Hints:
mainly alpha
Amino acid sequence: MVEKSLFPFPSYNVFMPAAGPKPEPERTPPERHPIPEVYTLETTGLLVIALLILILTLIRYWHHIPWGAR
């Protein structure tokens, strides 16, 4: 059934056929990718920097630490 319009362009308020449910793709278990070496090196570098800051802080303030409070 085609509606006749008074305007030369189609109307936006016309009925559209209902969309059916989309077929779901087959689910496959995700493959486990190895961790890139860059992330391992980055973590190692951050741990080394944190340890270095801790050591330098202990060296600088060694004589201010109240060892009797331990």
